[in-house]
Amino acid sequence: MSGDDYWRRPEPGDSAANAECAPSRYSGPPQAEPATPDWQPARTPPHQPPRHLPELDHDAIDRAEQRADRFTYAVALAAGVVLLIVACAQWRG
Description:
This protein is mainly alpha-helical. About 45% of the residues lie in helices and about 0% in strands.
């Protein structure tokens, strides 16, 4: 038996082919057991209302964000200057 024999079309008189062609009937879902009369869903305790968040100082947040922006730009500028110096040194050398 070669590896392709599994995939070849069955012969007309083959019993395995007749078994595959026979229509099968869906028997439906399995029968479920009814719940006992005293069954109840699990109860959860009532939830607590959410806590209140502290008030935000929006002006202080804006100032801190501006300081962070300035610091980021300063670091980027310094890195650019260092890269420019290294590039010029490589070009001259």
